[in-house]
Structure formats: structure tokens, C-alpha cells
Write a structure and sequence with these properties.
Helix 3 runs antiparallel to helix 7. The strands form three sheets. Strands 2-3-7-6 form a four-stranded antiparallel β-sheet, with no helix packed on it. Strands 1-4-5 form a three-stranded mixed β-sheet, covered by helices on one side. A two-stranded antiparallel sheet has the order 8-9. It is an alpha+beta fold and 399 residues long. The protein folds into three domains: 118 residues, Butyryl-Coa Dehydrogenase, subunit A, domain 1 (Orthogonal Bundle); 111 residues, Beta Barrel (Butyryl-CoA Dehydrogenase, subunit A, domain 2), CATH 2.40.110; 149 residues, Butyryl-CoA Dehydrogenase, subunit A, domain 3 (Up-down Bundle), CATH 1.20.140.10. The protein contains ten helices and nine strands. The structure holds acetoacetyl-coenzyme A (CAA). Acetoacetyl-coenzyme A binds next to helix 4, strand 3, helix 6 and helix 10.
Length: 399
């Protein structure tokens, strides 16, 4: 679907495709089995300059936007969903700095993220605060020119290997709307400890763990943007920019599953014919490819809306996230079906796609939350529909 992209995005896609085929694809199943961070893959991504794609040029980046980020994530995920998030989570962790960081914070952190020297994670969720992001309990109490953080973060993707972590904590328990603030923490700070590391269904090459903060002292220069109380807004603004990346991961996974299923259908013979000659298999392949194409169009257009700063970017980011990730789940499940009995087996490539796809419907806001965000925005926009009012008859008993 090159017609949806400009030359510079096609260049990024091709660069990502080359690394994905050369380094990611041959190693994807090995790291899935080992459940180990693939340092050699991360090194190859950094050497190809991919870690800098979404970072502005003045901070050592390539000056791309969310669309460029998405085309890279898609290509990596087409070969390995875990690698897709291993890469994209650095954008999630660093978007708060881009959105709200002081110039000093941008100068301090972004160049090392762009070069791939430092990895970053995003710590919002806690064991009792997943969808209800405002319900976190991690606290940051002021002590002179420092903040003292206490609490445990959960499902911290990349956290166990990350050098930096954007952490959300309560700075004003008495406030409803100015309760939270974000902090840029570094792994060698006292009181910063990686806790329990999860054993996962999919995306197994990227570690997801707990982060224990025990009297972790952060100088006020680590407070994002230098002002307390804006943490919830900054988290939401970050997710608006990051959710298209999850959607792109889903498109890549779904495309990879279509690729494998199509090839397999031409090779696998039953009743003396390749199964691709059977109309029921053809229908499956056609539906899978069509859904992926529709999802990709929505992801690219949502990414463009975010890059343009469109007023309704929140709605489009949520739409593409739930649509593309639901497509990925359907398509990867159908791809396993095309592979039949072999599809269920670990020595065939396809079941990994289905396992990797599942988390995309859950993280960065469950698809139930995304639908709620879309509906809330539609309802807000309903005031623009007053020109239709006269065409809706008012029932007799209400006149
Ligand atoms: N941009 C800017 N501000 C926003 C905003 C946005 N997109 N969305 C909401 N806000 C503002 C509101 O305007 C409001 O501001 P005021 O108080 O000044 O009026 C404030 O934030 C509160 O908004 P809501 O009343 O809408 O908040 P809510 O409590 O009802 O929650 C929610 C809304 C959409 C459910 C939100 O909590 C949410 O997105 N939940 C899901 C969280 C999530 O995605 N977590 C995943 C974390 S990352 C992860 O998955 C781990 C990983 O490592 C990959």
C-alpha cells in the first residue's frame, strides 16, 4: 500500500524491512523459547538508526513522526511481534519527555535514547490500577528539593532491562484533577529495584516486570516538565501518540500471519490438491488480507491525524488501536486454522503470531477502554449534529 505513504516513510519501511528479514526473522523463535531479551536484535536496530526515528533532529533524532514510527513497528512485527514492542515501547517511554519535558530534560535523555544507548519504559499501571489509571497509589512526597517515591509498578514492559523509566505517582492526594505527576527515573537511583518478572504467553523476548520503589529519592529536576499535578494529562497525551504504534504492531503481526498462511496454503496438499485451490480456504485468505488492508489504512490515517495535531486525534488513536488489534487476533487465529493440525504445534511458525497478537488487545488500554474513549468523543461531538434535529420526530407524548 505504497500509495498511502510518502517517499520518506517508504525509506524508513524499507530500512526496517531489511533489518527485520536479516536479523529478526532468523532469531524470533529462539528468543521466544528462551524468553530472553535479544540484545543482538536491539543492537542491529540501533545500528540501522531505527531507534531515532520518532525523536526530533535537535535531540539527535531523525525528526520522524508517529507515522514513521508506525511503518517501522509494522515491519518489525511482521517478523516478530515481541521485537515490535521491544522497539515501540521506547517511544511510549519517551513520548512524555517529548510532550512535556523541559528543554534540559530533552537534552539530557533524548540523544541517548535516539542512539539506542539507553532503553526506556513507561510505568503507569499498578496491580489495582490498570484501566483506572487515575487510581494508582504510588506516592511521591516532597522533601526539600527532592521527591521520595514509594510503591510498586506492574506490567512494566521493558522495565527489567531499561535504563530509564517514566513513572507516574501521586504528588497531591487532596486533589482530584491535579493528583498525579510523572518522574524520569534512572535505574541506578537508590530505592529503584526491578521486582518480579512475568512468564508470558507472547511477546516473550521483551521482559515485563514489577518495579519496586522504596524511598526512591529523585531530585526535583526529575519531575517531568518541572511542574507537579499534570501527570494524568501527560499520561493521556502520551497514550494518544503511542496507541497507533500498538495498532501498527497488530497490522504487522496480521500481515506476517497472512504471508505464512498464504505460502503454506499453496504448499500443503489434501485430496491431491494444494489447499489453496479450495474455495473455503480462499475465502479465509481473502477475508484475512482485506481486514489487514482496512486496518492498515486506519492506522496510517490515525497516525497522520496525531502528527498533524488534529483536534480529534484521541478518538482516531483509540479507533485504530482497537480495530487493528481485533483484526490481528482474528487473522492470526484464522492463520493457525489454515495450518490445521500443524498450526497448533510449536515447531511451526504460526502459533507464535496468535500468542503475540493477544496482548495488543490488552496493553496501552484494553479494547473495552478504547471503545469507551471513542464513544465519549462521539457523544461530545453530537452538538455538531443539531442540523439533523428537525428530522427526528418528537413522539406525541413528549410534545
Ligand atoms: N489528552 C489530554 N487530556 C486528557 C485526555 C487526553 N487524551 N484524556 C483525558 N484527559 C484529561 C481530561 O480532560 C480530564 O481533565 P480535567 O480533570 O482537567 O477535566 C482528565 O484528563 C481526566 O479525564 P477523564 O475524566 O476522562 O478520566 P477517567 O478517570 O474517566 O479515565 C480513561 C479515562 C480513558 C479510562 C483513562 O483512565 C485510560 O485511558 N485508561 C487506560 C489506561 C491505559 O491505557 N493504561 C495502559 C498503560 S501502558 C501499558 O499498557 C504498559 C506497557 O508498558 C505497554
Amino acid at each position: 500500500m505504497d500509495h498511502l505513504l510518502a517517499d520518506r516513510q517508504i525509506e524508513w519501511r524499507d530500512r526496517a524491512r531489511e533489518v527485520a528479514r536479516r536479523v529478526v526473522l532468523p532469531n524470533a523463535w529462539k528468543y521466544d523459547r528462551l524468553q530472553e531479551y535479544p540484545w543482538e536484535i536491539k543492537q542491529a536496530l540501533a545500528e540501522a538508526g531505527l531507534m531515532k526515528v520518532w525523536i526530533p533532529k535537535e535531540y539527535g533524532g531523525a525528526g520522524g513522526g508517529v507515522l514513521e514510527l508506525c511503518v517501522v513497528v509494522e515491519e518489525l512485527s511482521r517478523c516478530c511481534g515481541g521485537t515490535g514492542v521491544l522497539f515501540a515501547v521506547n517511544a511510549l517511554g519517551s513520548f512524555p519527555i517529548l510532550v512535556a519535558g523541559t528543554d534540559e530534560q530533552k537534552q539530557k535523555y533524548l540523544p541517548a535514547i535516539a542512539s539506542g544507548e539507553k532503553l526506556i519504559a513507561f510505568g503507569l499501571s499498578e496491580k489495582n490500577a490498570g484501566s483506572d489509571a487515575g487510581g494508582i497509589t504510588c506516592s511521591a512526597e516532597r522533601d526539600g528539593d527532592h521527591y521520595v517515591l514509594n510503591g510498586t509498578k506492574k506490567w512494566n514492559t521493558n522495565g527489567p532491562v531499561a535504563d530509564l523509566n517514566t513513572i507516574f505517582a501521586i504528588t497531591d492526594p487532596s486533589s482530584r484533577s491535579r493528583r498525579l505527576s510523572a518522574f524520569l527515573l534512572e535505574k541506578d537511583m537508590d530505592g529503584y529495584e526491578v521486582g518480579y518478572i512475568e512468564d508470558k504467553m507472547g511477546i516473550r523476548c521483551v521482559p515485563v516486570g514489577e518495579l519496586d520503589l522504596k524511598d526512591c529519592r529523585a531530585h526535583e529536576s526529575h519531575l517531568l516538565g518541572g511542574k507537579p499535578g499534570l501527570g494524568f494529562k501527560h499520561a493521556m497525551m502520551t497514550l494518544d501518540r503511542a496507541r497507533p504504534g500498538v495498532a501498527a504492531q497488530a497490522v504487522g503481526l496480521a500481515q506476517g500471519a497472512v504471508d505464512f498462511a498464504t505460502l503454506y496454503a499453496t504448499q500443503r496438499k489434501q485430496f491431491g490438491e494444494p489447499i489453496s485451490s479450495f474455495q473455503m480456504v480462499q475465502k479465509m485468505l481473502a477475508d484475512m488480507a482485506t481486514k489487514v488492508a482496512a486496518a492498515r489504512s486506519l492506522v496510517y490515517s490515525a497516525a497522520k491525524a496525531v502528527d498533524a495535531g488534529a483536534r480529534d486525534m484521541t478518538k482516531y488513536a483509540a479507533m485504530c488501536k482497537y480495530y487493528a488489534t481485533d483484526v490481528a487476533m482474528e487473522v492470526t487465529t484464522d492463520a493457525v486454522q489454515v495450518f490445521g493440525g500443524n498450526g497448533y504445534m510449536r515447531n511451526y511458525p504460526i502459533e507464535k503470531y496468535m500468542r503475540d497478537a493477544k496482548i495488543t488487545q490488552i496493553y496501552e488500554g484494553t479494547n473495552q477502554i478504547q471503545r469507551m474513549v471513542v464513544a465519549r468523543n462521539l457523544i461530545k461531538e453530537a452538538t455538531r449534529l443539531s442540523h439533523l434535529e428537525e428530522f427526528i420526530p418528537v413522539p406525541e407524548h413528549l410534545r
